[in-house]
């Protein structure tokens, strides 16, 4: 029996409905590979308006993804499909970059009388892009930045070519990816404006040729001509071009050094941390080093003087013994002088074995102490009529059961329940009861935190962190509830002691124990450090020591 003939394929025009063309595409591409389907669809989409072409491409891509089945493909088919998918992706990225740049321009009140972003309820073009596309602000800014350098520019009533036309053409054609384009544009933008435009154009053509594998007048006959390099290798070539065009560019001028300003920001939350972004001037680096070195310096007691050696096989003579004792007495006197001057803390060498923090972790804790002290300082500007405060929200049941997480205002990442308990112990809490519909039913007026007067009194008694050997300044100390508030502990000076942030955050796991008897603070060291297990009076403020007469 003869098979039924297939309907002839219509030649699509701009008036042909997309749905009808999709039916024809399905018939035409039946039995073709995914890569071939993408190629046929691209050719047919060129006959439509931009909106219809994108609709057609999106539909075909959805079908292609449904039949991807990468794990079932041969090695050759897998790699061919990867290349085809990347080609489609480059075109898509080029469109994203171009559209994002136009949205930003139309939202710029310096250029437009009416801001597109503000007419849509957004503040900036980047804000509008992130709302519409659901990409990150970082990604939106990257698209806008690249698009501004590769879009046609308007100067009054005239239209000017893109600042980097070769990159723009390759990006639009889909022969270069966004990451390579960013590397070229960023590198060329760093070149001094005094360079001849013709030299910059040569570099641009050479870099684009290296990124696309094209053979041009700049690379013809050179090794690797016609080979397309990855974006990482393009960045390396960009540095070579910069060194060729601007040999002195790597050495900052006096004006650059004098104009440099320190900057600090935060990266995207990852692996439990917000990475710091920025840089500091040499002057600020020196200030920071001074602070860090002061608190990281070794305060431990040095080894005792070594005995004057005797010859092997005999006891030391009386003269040698006298010399040894004299050397020991001199070392002891010098050591006591350093202790009296506060340069050495006896027993600190034992504490170093307990403190497993790295140098970087210690510097971060020092920086935290500086910020905590600044937040409590009376001279710090207020926000909304109150001193800077870290607001942490947690479900009451989670807090009592020691489960769940807490949430810090202004920070999207959660904090552990242990951190919440630490912050509650140091800074207090306020209980708020909500109805199921979110209505506030009750708010405690009483807050479980030490008042300024209580804090001053505790600092005057303890003189700083009560853990032996801790050199943290008294002004950095946090207030610790000896008996936790959730176990009935009260917030008063007879249940509060001073601890630095590090010892406060590790008090439940480090082995140190604290109690207050008749108003006096006592400390018990970890068993491995003090096997006797005796309670020892904690440090006191140095003002408690009277001067003998």
Q: Can you give keywords for this protein?
A:
20 helices; three-stranded antiparallel sheet; HNH_nuc; single chain; disordered N terminus; 46% helix; mainly alpha; 549 residues
Quick gist of this model?
This protein has 549 residues and is mainly alpha-helical. It has helices at residues 18-28, 34-45, 50-66, 75-107, 116-119, 125-133, 137-150, 165-173, 178-189, 197-212, 231-245, 254-259, 282-296, 318-340, 348-354, 359-376, 396-401, 417-427, 452-462, 501-505, and strands spanning 153-155, 158-160, 263-266, 276-279, 392-393, 405-408, 414-416, 432-434, 440-443, 478-481, 496-499, 513-517, 520-524, 536-537. The strands form 6 sheets. Strands 5-6-7 form a 3-stranded antiparallel β-sheet.
What does the secondary structure layout of this molecule look like, with pairings?
Blueprint (H helix, E strand, L loop, with lengths): L17 H11 L5 H12 L4 H17 L8 H33 L8 H4 L5 H9 L3 H14 L2 E3 L2 E3 L4 H9 L4 H12 L7 H16 L18 H15 L8 H6 L3 E4 L9 E4 L2 H15 L21 H23 L7 H7 L4 H18 L15 E2 L2 H6 L3 E4 L5 E3 H11 L4 E3 L5 E4 L8 H11 L15 E4 L14 E4 L1 H5 L7 E5 L2 E5 L11 E2 L12
Antiparallel strand pairs: 1-2, 3-4, 5-6, 6-7, 8-9, 10-11, 12-13, 13-14
Helix pairs in contact: 2-3, 2-4, 4-6, 4-7, 6-7, 9-10, 9-11, 10-11, 13-16
Organism: Leifsonia kafniensis
Family: Belongs to the Rv1128c/1148c/1588c/1702c/1945/3466 family.
InterPro entries: DUF222, HNH, HNH_nuc
What shape does the CA trace take? elongated
What class, by secondary structure content? Answer: mainly alpha
Largest sheet: 3 strands, antiparallel
**Could you give the count of β-strands?**
14
Mean pLDDT: 75
Instruction: Quickly count the helices.
Output: 20
Order of strands, widest sheet: 5-6-7
Beta-strand proportion = 5-15%
> Low-confidence segments, ≥5 residues, pLDDT <50?
1-15, 250-258, 298-306, 342-351
Estimated radius of gyration: 35 Å
Report how far apart the termini are.
Answer: 125 Å
Fraction in helix? 40-55%
């Amino acid at each position: 029996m003869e098979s039924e003939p297939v309907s002839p394929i219509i030649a699509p025009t701009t008036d042909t409905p997309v749905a009808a063309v999709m039916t024809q595409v399905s018939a035409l591409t039946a039995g073709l590979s995914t890569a071939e389907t993408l190629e046929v669809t691209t050719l047919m989409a060129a006959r439509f308006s931009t909106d219809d072409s994108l609709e057609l491409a999106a539909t075909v891509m959805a079908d292609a993804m449904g039949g991807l089945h990468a794990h079932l493909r041969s090695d050759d088919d897998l790699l061919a499909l990867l290349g085809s998918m990347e080609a489609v992706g480059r075109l898509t990225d080029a469109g994203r970059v171009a559209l994002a740049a136009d949205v930003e321009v139309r939202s710029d009140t310096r250029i437009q009388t009416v801001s597109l972003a503000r007419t849509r309820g957004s503040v900036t073009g980047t804000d509008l892009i992130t709302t519409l596309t659901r990409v990150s602000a970082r990604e939106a800014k990257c698209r806008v930045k690249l698009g501004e350098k590769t879009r046609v520019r308007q100067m009054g009533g005239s239209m000017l070519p893109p600042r980097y036309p070769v990159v723009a053409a390759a990006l639009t054609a889909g022969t270069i990816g966004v990451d390579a384009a960013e590397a070229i544009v960023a590198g060329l933008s760093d070149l001094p404006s005094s360079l001849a435009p013709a030299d910059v154009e040569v570099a641009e053509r050479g870099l684009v040729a290296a990124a696309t594998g094209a053979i041009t007048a700049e690379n013809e006959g050179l090794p690797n001509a016609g080979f397309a390099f990855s974006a990482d290798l393009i960045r390396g070539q960009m540095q070579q071009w910069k060194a060729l065009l601007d040999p002195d560019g790597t050495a900052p001028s006096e004006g650059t050094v004098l104009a440099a300003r320190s900057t600090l920001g935060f990266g995207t939350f990852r692996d439990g941390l917000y990475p710091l972004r920025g840089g500091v001037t040499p002057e600020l680096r020196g200030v920071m080093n001074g602070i860090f070195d002061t608190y990281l310096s070794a305060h431990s007691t040095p080894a005792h003087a070594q005995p004057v050696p005797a010859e092997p096989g005999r006891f030391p003579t009386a003269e040698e013994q006298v010399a040894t004792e004299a050397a020991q007495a001199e070392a002891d006197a010098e050591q006591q002088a350093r202790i009296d001057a506060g340069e050495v803390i006896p027993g600190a060498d034992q504490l170093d074995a307990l403190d497993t923090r790295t140098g970087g972790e210690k510097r971060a804790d020092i920086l935290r102490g500086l910020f905590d002290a600044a937040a409590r300082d009376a001279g710090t500007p207020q926000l909304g009529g109150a001193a800077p405060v870290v607001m942490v929200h947690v479900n009451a049941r989670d807090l009592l059961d020691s489960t769940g997480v807490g949430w810090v205002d202004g920070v999207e990442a959660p904090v552990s329940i242990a951190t919440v308990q630490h912050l509650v112990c140091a800074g207090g809490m306020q209980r708020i009861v909500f109805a199921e519909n979110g209505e506030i039913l009750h708010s405690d007026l009483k807050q479980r935190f030490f008042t300024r007067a209580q804090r001053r009194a505790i600092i005057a008694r303890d003189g700083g962190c009560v853990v032996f050997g801790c050199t943290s300044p008294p002004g950095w100390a946090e207030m610790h509830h000896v008996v936790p508030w959730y176990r009935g502990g009260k917030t008063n000076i007879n249940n509060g002691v001073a601890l630095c942030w590090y010892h406060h955050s590790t008090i439940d796991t480090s082995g140190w124990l604290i109690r207050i008897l008749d108003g006096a603070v006592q400390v018990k060291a970890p068993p491995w450090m003090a096997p006797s297990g005796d309670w020892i009076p904690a440090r006191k403020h140095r003002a408690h020591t009277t001067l003998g007469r």
